[in-house]
Amino acid sequence: MIILLILVLIQGLALARNCANFTLPVVPGAAVLSLHSSLAYNVSFPAQLTGIPGDIPGLNFCNVSLALTHSGANDTVFVNVWLPPADRWNGRYAATGGGGLAAGYDFNMVLPAHSGFATSFTDGGLTLGRRIDPQTGYWGHRPDGTLNTDLLTNLAHRAVHTMSVVSKDVIGQFYGVDSFRSYYTGCSQGGRMGYHSAARYPSDFDGILAVAPALSPELLGPGDFWPFIVMAQEKQLVPTCVFETFQREIIRYCDPLDGLVDGLISHYDLLASCPFDPSSVVGKAAQCGKDTSILVTETHARIVQKIMDGVKDDDDNLLWYGLSTGATFSGIANTTLRNNSLVPAPFPPAAGWLRGMILRNVTANIFNLTTEEYFAAFNESMRIGAKIMGTSGLDLTGFYSAGGKMLTWVGLSDEYINPSNLFRFRDSVAASLPRDTSIDAFYRVFTAPGVGHCRGGAGPLPLDAMGALINWVENGIPPETLSARSRLPNGRVASRNLCKYPAKPFYIGGDIYDSHSFTCRDDGHLAGGADHVIG
């Protein structure tokens, strides 16, 4: 016991000594303003921060906090780097991304640090000196009301790049190494940041895990507010329980079309091709509590139809996709009771995008927008966002030439971002490559039936997508499927092998909860309707 305590003490002293010796990194296009380091010892994190079962006990790491500014940007960007002890470091760096209107969150570092990575996050300057919640969109405009293009550029791509440069310098100093593998992991906005990193800074990362990427945010931002414009048009807010009734009916109708009734809509083409008619639910009772029910009306059905159809202009052009078929409406069409009155409860980043970036008034009453004002805001969003954050024209060939690998998985029941836009982008990349270059050589997309945005939902979740990416990068073994498993609401544990797009899962007999009962096959039916979005 005494020997063990001595070893622990020696390890702690070594960690503390290394943690005290840093010089300021040199960053092209930016200046590091400050660096502070401290030893974090025996720090524990609750399970809700990591998305995995069980708490993460006592982590030890060197916590390096830096502040920097980009040349001419008048910003203050914070970066945190967590460095595990040398004997716990796996020899890799994992950069983390953000979500919504935030460039990053420190809790995204917990799981990589627990897995032995040196890891980092950045606020991108969007907290305005740690004074605001980025989701409000307050950072999107300057005090004079003009768009803050500097901070928008940070969120778009610059913050992650600068973070990677700073972090690699700090990691090299701490461990005394010149080279190591670098990875990126992010979901939603963080997923989109991974795509821009690959296109704009192709040598920053050896591998990128970009989950449920929020591609085309200039369309997605206002698009996720569309349900409230629809409800305003119909002069009626829809209770959550009524939306839940429609969701159950959608799944009941569309589920068999993939060849198996299992509660999951497993084929991505059904996002556009399932011919569900919301009017078929009119007259049914929605259970809204133990002793309360609401009769579904034609107005409810019209609202649901418009939400599913997506944002369309007066000429019936599709500007943005509708809700993913079978997904919960509570993501982008949420309503709630307040003082016994039903009120809108929009997705905070959608509201923040409209207020902060487009209207540039964080107190604007966006629920009073007319249809004409909404489409004017949509057009303004396209105008200001396409060049800085847009997906059209992103070129991944440099990433391919640099030897990079990108792995994406997406839930087919994503309640915030219809996966069809991802499929459209993937297909456009495949079409742009030379004939002798296979997209699968460096970029693979996997579909997770029944899974929601980043996590949740009714379907099996990937077990170790980062492990699959590392195996691809370091051992040259590309993933053909991703292993997934979840405990379902009925208590059963379901396993699946997630299929690589454009393949889909087909049931071949046996236990529907067993991955061996399915095979992946490309039947030639692509993500229909995806090419009609303007933008």
From TrEMBL:
<dbReference type="InterPro" id="IPR029058">
    <property type="entry name" value="AB_hydrolase_fold"/>
</dbReference>
<keyword id="KW-0719">Serine esterase</keyword>
<keyword id="KW-0732">Signal</keyword>
<keyword id="KW-0479">Metal-binding</keyword>
<keyword id="KW-1015">Disulfide bond</keyword>
<dbReference type="InterPro" id="IPR011118">
    <property type="entry name" value="Tannase/feruloyl_esterase"/>
</dbReference>
<keyword id="KW-0378">Hydrolase</keyword>
<comment type="similarity">
    <text>Belongs to the tannase family.</text>
</comment>
<dbReference type="Pfam" id="PF07519">
    <property type="entry name" value="Tannase"/>
</dbReference>
<feature type="signal peptide">
    <location>
        <begin position="1"/>
        <end position="16"/>
    </location>
</feature>
<dbReference type="GO" id="GO:0030600">
    <property type="term" value="F:feruloyl esterase activity"/>
</dbReference>
<protein>
    <recommendedName>
        <fullName>Carboxylic ester hydrolase</fullName>
        <ecNumber>3.1.1.-</ecNumber>
    </recommendedName>
</protein>
<keyword id="KW-0106">Calcium</keyword>
<dbReference type="GO" id="GO:0046872">
    <property type="term" value="F:metal ion binding"/>
</dbReference>
